[in-house]
């Protein structure tokens, strides 16, 4: 994930939305309630969400009605349906007008524009369809959380950094678990990201195996032009080398604007019955002032919130990156395991990463981000962990300008909370291997109770309304939560 970078507000373009442009749309249902989850006055929880589960046949009836209006189903979860349709179909069905909005590429958005109703746009949905669904929301592009002849061995660089296979498990104290012959066997970890080029010699020569599936509109299981998923997935294998790894690819190789949404990827992940889902992406819920967080969750994100709540209620551990200076959602959801960043120096000294987000949510009362930390580098680029990437792809070439590697060599030094989330997801897999009965809440409590206190440093200034960065200190603090995860200490108590 790239760090937060100030940019101008999204300008509405002085043009009409092209009628044939494709939209990603989330559909919610009322279930047993009088109004759907997007209309609920109170916050959703893993208990209340179950009242919005569609009755048998309700979802199928709505799907058929959507199909009759020209929409195509792209994903289906327990609580929501994802559909695709054109601007013209959406405008006709919901009696509205869509406007093109530019998105700053400084932020690492998956697309460069979005088509959305402008403020004050009409909204007169088809009454027959309205009787079958709660509402429909166009999904905004998400933000990937990276910083910007291949050998299985990484190149040498002239500064302190971590070897992903040796140093990451050692500093998270997972090597003692490996000595007990626990490597994550039998636990399914689903990672949702750009893609996964696991033909890289790092994966093949170390015997790491995976299954790659495509989210709606994603293409080619074997490639990853965005590089992000390939590199960050190495963190999973470093900590839990024998998990059943399920990579859910969102990227469309031919069309950067044509890939899947996080919701569509999450719905695809659920099909494979994972024990753990890890996501190194976010939506930045920054207010128009550019420095503080929104006070309410946008309705368009409530379908994703509902699907995550239902997954956690069913026993799936859901892990999200805290953000790299972002006010990151879904990381800010209280039930999610939210992972921030700690930097461990060559001499073992620890401090909060000033690249990683830390904030108290204005949306979820009492919620502080992060819960715990993994390993993350420091500003300006978080060059910290040597990771394998597709040679010649985005991160391989982009990072070569500052990380000491060579463009085209298939290696890059990077981290961000994109790295820390899969690290801790893999720790969760080790805990579940030892005790499959652990609930998501129990796993979070274990990690918090046994984490190593981080007392120095400060988090990203971009996630602090005062622009300073929240300070670390003794005990549970604002910058690092409970501190750096101690995998073996948690495993002993599992």
UniProtKB/TrEMBL annotation:
Chain ranges of the Peptidase S53 activation domain: 11-136
Matching entries from InterPro entries are given as: Peptidase_S8/S53_dom (IPR000209), Peptidase_S8/S53_dom_sf (IPR036852), Peptidase_S8_Asp-AS (IPR023827), Peptidase_S8_Ser-AS (IPR023828), Peptidase_S8_subtilisin-like (IPR050131), Peptidase_S8_subtilisin-rel (IPR015500), S53_propep (IPR015366)
Q: Quote the SUPFAM superfamilies the UniProt record gives.
A: Protease propeptides/inhibitors, Subtilisin-like
This chain belongs to the protein called S8 family serine peptidase
Query: What is the similarity comment for this entry?
Result: Belongs to the peptidase S8 family.
Protein keywords: Hydrolase, Protease, Serine protease
What is the active site of this protein? 193, 228, 418
Give the species. Answer: Massilia antarctica
**Does the UniProt entry include the keyword Protein biosynthesis?**
no
